[in-house]
Write a structure and sequence with these properties.
16 helices, mainly alpha, two-stranded antiparallel sheet, single chain, two-stranded antiparallel ribbon, 522 residues, Serine Threonine Protein Phosphatase 5, Tetratricopeptide repeat
């Protein structure tokens, strides 16, 4: 991880200040002179929202929800094609954590400690914790204790990172519960600084509890299933008085003002970010047919969310249908891209849509899963229903359609016949364009009816299939699935190669197949 003064670059991007405004001679040469913390916080929040997008943009393809019209084994976007990741030159998630969020958080904490603004310290540490969780869950081992002490820091084990995250979550709960975060001497934090909650620390505390619940969820179902009751209690505590942490986009000509999932989205610095490319994306068979219950023969579907996620379009004969492809199978040569559904016709994908760091429905599904493994199927069924309803309301599905779906016991079972598959498939749908979709698939080992991996004697994701035309040099075995991303080649292969070699991760496709500590170990 190359150590650079990246904080200065992005602060200039947001504030328009000149170097002379805040560079000094008496500070750490890798830092900057005093900058008001209220000018740094908007930068961290913006990049927290962008990081959510980066992880979700990869995950929606790796989870077999979207695909493209191509069928190549290799390409610029390996996660959309044949999983040939070693040919990619950058993963934005890595830089987003260490530079965009991490470097700014490091500087803000230094300045906030100097002026004793505990509200800024608490929120910054929370966002850093969220960023750490998202990053280790796609890369595994990574720098933590030496992250900003060297140009070639050591990589901490994922086990030790999880130990730190649990300790940090508990320490932050104590901090948020203390009177210091609301003391009058704190620098104010209004909506111009905090576009999410305008400095409301009570609402941010609930987000902290949600992050803790998500971290604790990694105990299930593989590491420590006996912790299910504690996971449930934390999720329900977070839900008490919950408000969605939504980052608000105003729309406009500037890149940072538009939702990255919107039509006019352009990447923030094309060399480090990726556009959503939903104009050329195609719904995958698994999402439309297996999850939404679409029948191509009758054009009927069982889940009312389908038209609120995408809009069907007509072919050259005027037939309007929800067309889709199997992942990386390639579009038939007679088809045209504009015959496939419009993915921008959703409340999630407008220029002024919000990015929600953690959703209410995710918390309900965490609670449902934990309750199931704790043996409380009544509570599992209750949270399952609330999670579905919350997601449908977010998509603006009419209440009549929501009630009809929830009232169909074949689709939404009650306590007597609920399975863990019912919970996880509904969560899969609710995590469309959200970070946790791919994490959940890996936690359950891509359980499907071909690999016959079962939990509580149940296949979790019936109908799930690997993409076609996977890169044969890496993925010759039928049941091998992608488990992690390789480390960012633009920094780690150049500046920290020895650590990659120590992990046996340098240019090694086998590293991509190594499960996270919280996933089945094959």
């Amino acid at each position: 991880m190359k150590h650079i003064k990246y904080f200065l670059i992005i602060l200039l991007f947001f504030t328009g200040l000149s170097c002379e405004d805040f560079l000094g001679d008496n500070r750490d040469p890798d830092g900057v002179d005093q900058v008001p913390v209220n000018e740094i916080m908007p930068v961290i929040l913006f990049y927290t929202a962008l990081q959510n997008y980066d992880h979700s943009e990869y995950g929606t393809y790796l989870s077999q929800a979207l695909t493209t019209g191509g069928r190549s084994q290799t390409g610029t976007h390996a996660y959309r094609s044949g999983w040939e990741f070693l040919g990619m030159n950058r993963h934005p998630q890595w830089r987003r954590h260490f530079y965009d969020v991490g470097s700014n958080a490091k500087e803000l904490l230094r300045f906030a400690e100097e002026e004793n603004s505990m509200n800024y310290i608490a929120l910054t540490r929370l966002l850093r914790l969220l960023s750490t969780q998202q990053t280790t869950d796609v890369f595994g081992d990574m720098p933590l204790t030496e992250a900003y002490e060297s140009s070639s820091p050591k990589y901490d084990s994922q086990e030790s990172i999880y130990e730190w995250m649990n300790q940090e979550a508990d320490a932050l709960i104590a901090l948020f519960n203390s009177p210091e975060v609301k003391q009058e001497t704190n620098r104010p934090m209004g909506l111009n600084v905090d576009r999410v909650f305008a400095g409301d620390m009570d609402k941010w505390k609930q987000v902290l509890l949600a992050v803790k619940a998500r971290i604790m969820l990694r105990d299930l179902p593989n590491q420590n299933p006996g912790n299910a009751s504690a996971v449930l209690a934390t999720a329900e505590q977070a839900l008490s008085g919950w408000s969605d942490p939504k980052y608000k986009f105003d729309g406009g000509s500037s890149v940072e003002k538009n939702n990255p999932w919107g039509r006019t989205n352009k990447p923030v610095n094309s060399w480090e970010s990726r556009s959503n490319d939903l104009l050329s994306a195609i719904p995958a068979k698994y999402l439309v047919e297996d999850m939404m219950g679409y029948d191509p023969a009758t054009m009927e579907y069982s889940d009312p969310r389908l038209p609120y996620i995408m809009e069907p379009r007509a072919d050259d004969e005027g037939v309007v249908a929800y067309r889709y492809l199997e992942n990386n199978s390639g579009m038939p040569p007679t088809d045209q891209l504009e015959w496939y559904p419009d993915l921008y016709e959703s409340v999630l994908t407008t220029d002024t849509s919000t990015i929600t760091f953690i959703t209410e429905e995710e918390l309900h599904f965490i609670a449902a899963e934990a309750a199931y493994w704790a043996g409380d199927k009544n509570k599992a069924a209750q949270h399952l229903r609330m999670g579905i309803e919350s997601h449908m309301q977010r998509l603006q599905v009419p209440q009549e359609e929501i009630d009809s779906y929830l009232g169909n016991s074949d689709l939404v079972p009650g306590p007597a016949n609920i399975t863990i598959s019912d919970i996880m498939t509904e969560k899969y749908k609710a995590m469309y364009l959200q970070v946790e979709q791919w994490n959940d698939l890996r936690r359950y080992g891509y359980s499907n009816d071909l690999n016959d991996r079962r939990f509580d004697n149940t296949v979790i994701y019936p109908g799930l299939r690997r993409p076609h035309n996977l890169y044969e040099a890496y993925w010759s075995a039928d049941n091998q699935w992608i488990q992690r991303l390789n480390y960012d080649p633009e920094t780690e292969e150049k500046y920290n190669r020895e650590e990659l070699m120590r992990l046996d991760a340098f240019r090694n496709p086998e590293w991509l197949k190594r499960p996270m500590i919280w996933a089945p170990q094959n």
